[in-house]
Amino acid sequence: MGDDFFSLEEGIGVEILDNFKILQGYIELSNISMQNEMTDLILVKKDFYLIIEELNP
What we know:
Elements: H1 34-55
């Protein structure tokens, strides 16, 4: 499929779509929640510091 690193597994085909539109002036919606991601980041940071404190008493 060209000169890239993309490859298909055996038995999987490519579906070519011809019924799409490109609309000017529209904003693509994100599939993440920024609030959830920031909360997860804070929790991971706290866990990281707890592990560091346990390793270096």
